[in-house]
Amino acid sequence: VQLQASGGGLVQAGGSLRLSCAVPGRLFSFNAVGWYRQAPGKQRELVASITTGGATTYADSVKGRFTISRVNAKDTVDLQMYLLTPEDTGVYYCNLVLWAAGNRFWGQGTLVTVSS
Question: What is the mean pLDDT of residues 58-68?
Answer without folding.
Answer: 98
